[in-house]
Amino acid sequence: MSKPIIGVMPLWDDEKNSMWMLPGYFEGISQAGGIRSFLIKRMKRAE
């Protein structure tokens, strides 16, 4: 049986200009037998 591929979108923090994920969430996917993958949205910078 193949493992499910689970894509997750990290949260964005405007103040720190960075992405983050809730602690344990990403690791939990692996522990449950899934293949984890970040989905990154490309953002356009304001001019």
Q: Which structural class should the secondary elements be placed in?
A: alpha+beta
Q: What is the spatial order of strands in the main beta sheet?
A: 1-4
Fraction in beta strands:
25-35%
Beginning-to-end CA distance, first to last residue:
49 Å
Topology as a string of helices (H) and strands (E): EEEHE
How many strand segments?
A: 4
Shape: elongated
| Number of H/I helices | 1
What profile does the largest beta sheet have? 2 strands, parallel
Rg, Cα atoms, Å: 14 Å
Helix content: 10-25%
Mean pLDDT over the full residue set: 87
Low-confidence stretches: none
Tell me what you see in this structure.
The protein is α+β, with helices and mostly antiparallel strands. The mean pLDDT is 87. It has one helix and four strands, in the order E-E-E-H-E. A hairpin with a 4-residue loop joins strand 2 and strand 3. The strands form two sheets. The chain has a two-stranded parallel sheet. Strands 2-3 form a two-stranded antiparallel ribbon.
Question: What keywords describe this structure?
Answer:
47 residues; alpha+beta; two-stranded parallel ribbon; two-stranded antiparallel ribbon; 1 helix; 4 strands; 15% helix; 30% strand; elongated
Topology (elements, then pairings):
Elements: E1 5-8, E2 11-13, E3 18-20, H1 25-31, E4 35-38
Parallel strand pairs: 1-4
Antiparallel strand pairs: 2-3
